[in-house]
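User: Before I run my own analysis I want an independent prediction to cross-check against. Here's the chain; please return only the structure tokens and, at the end, one sentence I can use as a sanity check.
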Amino acid sequence: MEWYYYFGGFWAGVFLANFFPHFAKGACGDLFPTPFSKPRGKGPSSPMVNILWGLLNLLIAGILYKVSNVSLQDALSMVIFFAGFAAKSIAGARNFAMKEKM
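Assistant: Structure tokens:
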């Protein structure tokens, strides 16, 4: 498989990881930062904006997953997909843990 398939698979994992917190917070009716908030990425966005942002992330993740040929039969593509998912999850946890302390 070409390198750009793995690159796309990594980003599919990133977008999938970004789907979960936005969708969950929106579904619970909680305010949560999005790129559309003021200040950008720090201020609160409405639950509806979070639902829509989460669904857009899920759509992008699905498209990237499909076009990148991520497959259970290709262990390297799954490892790279998981690496993207893990990297975004850890970055999000660190970012929002620091936000709570402020």
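Sanity check: The first helix runs from residue 3 to 27.
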